[in-house]
Design brief:
Helices cover 30% and strands 11% of the residues. With 90 residues, the chain is an alpha+beta fold. It has one domain. β1 and β2 form a beta hairpin. α1 packs across α2.
């Protein structure tokens, strides 16, 4: 995520892989013109049966990274995204 390893909950990816369903990423952002909100809906992210949840999560996070790069003023980290050096990734 933004060129670094991070940890994120993998529930969406795990559920998608177990059910064979795609994950459709979506985000709402404030319209820069002040006219409400804009909905961004990404292409379905589909994993294969043998995939690890991290493969699907990478697709989700890559899509989200594009939205954040486009609207950086509309993103807030509610928790640490990047571990401190030496901290184990769970």
């Amino acid at each position: 995520f933004f060129g670094r390893t991070t940890r994120v909950p993998g529930g969406a990816a795990t559920l998608a892989l177990r059910t064979g369903s795609p994950v459709v990423p979506a985000a709402l952002v404030r319209d820069p013109r002040g006219r409400g909100y804009l909905a961004h809906i990404g292409p379905p992210i589909v994993g294969s049966k043998g995939d690890d949840a991290s493969v699907v999560m990478q697709g989700i996070m890559s899509w989200l990274e594009g939205i954040i790069r486009r609207y950086p003023d509309q993103w807030f980290m509610f928790r640490r995204m990047w571990p401190v050096s030496g901290e184990p990734l769970l």
